[in-house]
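Example 3.2
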Amino acid sequence: MSHILCEWLNQDVKLSRRIVPGSFPEDFSTGYLLGELLHKYGLQDDFKQFSQNSLETIPETKTELLNIYSDDEYIRKIHKRVEEDTFSREQRAKRRRKMLMDQLAAHEAQEKAYREEQLIYRLMKQSQNERRIAAQLMHVRHEKEVLRQNRIFREKQYEERRQKEFLEALDREAALAKQETIDNEEQITREREHHMKIAAERAQARYKKHYSICWEMIDQIIDLSTKIGEYRQLTNNRVPLKLLLDWKELFLNGKPIYEQASIQPLPDEPSPEQLVELNKMSLLDEKDYGEYKRMTGEWSPTEENSENKPPLNNNILGHVLRRLMEMFYPPKPKSSPEFPSFPVKGCILGKLFSGKTTCAKFIEKVCNIQVLSVGTLVQEAIEAFLKNEMKSEHSMISQESESSGEKNESYTFQLLFSMTVMDILSILCTLPQLSVRAQLGAASQKWLKSGKSVPDELLIDILLEAILKIPPEKGWIVEGFPMTINQAKLFEKSYTGIDVEAKDPISEKLSLAIDPRAPNKPPPTSPAFDVSILLDISDSLVLKRAANAEWSSSQNPDTEIVEEKIDLAREQILHRISGFLKTWPKLEKWFSIHQNTLVKVNAETEEGLVCETVKEIIEETVKNQNRSKFSHSYFLGFSNKRRLPYWEMVENTYMNTIKTVLRCLRDEQYTIIHYTADIRKKFQDYLKRPHFKQEFVSQWQTDFNSIASDLQDDEETKAELHQRVTDLRDLLWDICDRRREEAEQERIGVMNEEWLPDRRGIAMNHFFTLMQAELDRFQDTKRLLHDYYRAMEGKIPTEDAQGFTRIPLLDINEEQKKDQDESRRIPLVSSKLPSPGNTKSEKSKTQKNLKDKNSENGVTTSRNDENIIIDTWQTAVTAVSDMVWNAATKSRLELIKEKALAFLVELKSKAEEAYKDMEYWLASMFLEEISSVEKLVEVARHHIESSSKIHYEMTLEGTDFFINSDVKMVPDPVPDPVPPPEFQRIEISGSSTLTISQLTTLHKQFLQLAPKGFIPKKVFIETVSGLVNLNLGLNCFPDTWKNLTLADLENMASEFTVNSELTDWRRFLLAAAQPWPVPSVTQLLQTLHGFKSVDVTGSGFITQEHYTQVGLWFNGNEDLNITKSCEEPVSLERINHLIKFFFSLFADTKKDIALLDYIEMLLYFASHSDPVEGVYRALSIATGTYIHRRKKDSSSPNILSNEKTLIEDENEVLNDTGEGIISVACLLKVFHTGGSKDEGYHRFSCLKKAESYDKHFIKMYQELGAEDLTPIAVELLLKHPFMEDLINTCQEYKLPVSILSGTKGFKHTCINLH
């Protein structure tokens, strides 16, 4: 059936697509063929538009399915397309149903007509058989209808299943695309994090490196500082400049300042610390030798000889030595392969994915330039070896290795060493027949098979072999090479044949004389690369390009090889970026500074723009290419070479001798410093040796205290004791004299040591050795030039029969055997004899023993060292006086003589200074000991005259005398018996201190007479006199108070009198209650804030309960420290009673509940022995903040000693809410102008200046800018002249130092509360 239907559709209907029975469902699934069939029968009019949309949609759908994106636009397109397909299918189904219904209706009409005809016919011919057949036909018709309905239902199910599968496929592909996008983003994020981690590790490594450098520098600075500090102690703050320069040299070169290990003796295998010490010694030797050679620094001539400074170089000798060196060490010819002159030579460098390969291919295509890739060349070489590529030229690998010079020998030897015997035989059998490229490929394959990278030398040989095959008219560019600075230098050396790091071997061998006319260095040749292009790109863009390359490869499954390469690169991308960042700084310095060929291109722009930029750089390089050829050759011939090795030995001997002598002089300087410091320290320790004077003093004190008390007042006993003191003094003086004589003998023994003459002799021998070295150099130079010019004349050099002049050294160890003198090559003279001069002077001189004794420091000498040095210098100068080139040698000999004399003078001055210091210390200690004895005698005679025992031990310790209060020489007296318990609570009055009951009696009397606090002066005197004389028994006043006269009472009243009429009895009782703890400003402010905290209403008054709760600055439980002037014990119980007494003294008891004006009370306690300080304390109380006193005048001499010890730390002051301002009301509180006229007994109410103070204060505020009398800053107020005069003249806040100053001078003491 399907075949018939397909044949009808293909032949009769002639659809646009051929229908095959097997593909019938697939062809009609899109609905296109069904629409075409309906259109052919005129049942669908919009088929043309539908066909165009379908044809345009199908390729677009295929393209969209292939190009899956991770954005929302693609999802929206899919949904839109699904909706359009659904709508089109619904329209097609409607049209199909309509057509079927029409066909069905027509068919039913035909069937109905036919049935009617048949019915009529059958009715006409009705029979039983016809009825049976009709029934069968009806049944068959019914079955066909059922089959048709089933087919329609099945097709509908197939359509729904296809639609569902299509939607599921779309959802599945969208989910896969989304998941792949997420995976790619996660991969990019991981790679970026890995890159950031590597960058952080690199930054951490740099930080550790810099930290270690800084730590080492700080360690060096600390060592240098401590070293200087140590030597400042050793040299009395006069460190020699030479030592500072040596330490500076060690510091700048990063060497340790302190000695790490001893190199004496030096073992065969030194330790690392000993190697460091050897490096330090070599460094200082080179520094000293350089200064000596250039005559600078320590060896600079004096100002008189600086103008006649000879030239440092002998040009003639340098020229002769240069000619001999060039003949004895001929330069080796440089061999390098000859390369043609290419139009352009360059390289393209950059990170991974920077576009190197793209730019190289573009340049190769556009500019006709050969692009070389080292990796590709290595692969081609290996392939040539595997294909057995035969040689096309007559050159072989041996010739190639010879032409490439010494650079190939190392890796060829390594290659052969790493091969087995069979490998070498197999290669030798094949190599002679292979090409050069195949031979290099064989070596590369061997390295790669062993798991190692190809050596740089082999890579360069492969690259040079490829360059040789490039036509001369065609330039070349290397891609991604060189990657390291070593490859760049090796390629430069191999291509140009010039080693930029090579030094002139002849110039290195000539050190004493340099030829000024030596040929200059050859002019620089053109570098191997004409241009070096860097494609600059950031690391983040590299990662992004790598991710995009991976994405592109995943969309093209056919390119499996490309995908594998990209995956491999992705694994290595971070390491390759890190490697590039590590090696690029040195390459950048090489190409930009040494080669000057570096050009940077921004590779983050578009690909075409980058390629065009590189093309322009190449074309500009070709245009500006300048070629220059240089050639230089000369020939020098000289037949006499036998003196050159001898001169090399002379140079080495000269330099080693000079360095050794300078090292010895440096060690001598250290030895001198340490020796002088050591003898100083030992002598000081010797002066501090123990003595036995204390035993005699203790014995005398014991005998003195053993005398009975009744005999101490006897005149004869006193005379006897004075005589004993005199005997003790004479005995102690004798001990001091003996100690001085012993110390003097010790000092003389130090001065008579042979150390100083030995050091002088050793130093002179060092300088004589320098003279001998200069003399030998001069004589060897003379011999060399003599032989050279005789050889130039064609004569045979003759041996000089006359020997060289030898300068004798001083024989320091004269006690050795004299049979050893003949074996010595260096002549020695006695250190006690003057140095020998020339032959004429020897006959006229005789042996003399010079002994100079210095009375000041005792320095003795046995020879005239200056004459010895001058005679030795004269001998050396005489030996060089007959030569033309003697100016430089004479100058150096003169300089050595000056330095030798200066060294001896410095050595002598240091020794004399040490001896003078010892003499000064000896005299000072003797005088101090005598002075301590005099002090002891004075104390002893004082106790004899005062008839008192010496309770504590008199101590003579070293040069000090003191009374040791820790050791008692007299036992303590027996304490008084304890009174009965009933009398223990009774307070007993002391010599002048009033008891609490006595103070209460005075307070009650004064309160009854003058409750306002001010009483007439006359009434005050009568009241005090009456109470003192009338109270008897336990309440009896002290005798000091009883003995007060009328004049004493008037003087005491004057201290507390406000004016000529009234006396402030509260100030009197406050002073009479002493001793009590004097508060500081901090304590007053703390107490004020405590009272304000309980005064919730802010009325300024508190009850006794609040007063007890807050307390004062003392509460009776503290540790009270009484000053030394106090002779009475202070009871803690008295302090507790004083706290209660102060409340009753200042509280208003007329009210039902006694209230205390705490500000008024604290103003009383602000009084001070210095009235100005008292005013500042009162201002602090009034303002509630600390008011600083301007330190203009010195403190009052009457300030109590314990008040001076009060430290009022500003940091302890409470954080006040006030801002240091004061109002007129507060000022009136302080300066007593706040009362009214009707308050007759108010504080300061009767002052005549009260109203004037009011006016002055108002005027002062207005002058300071407070027109409405607003509070102003205290600092501004204190600067006003009126305020300054008022503070300086105010006496209202003066606390009398002595309340009974007019009687017997007894002073109350105050308590310092800690």
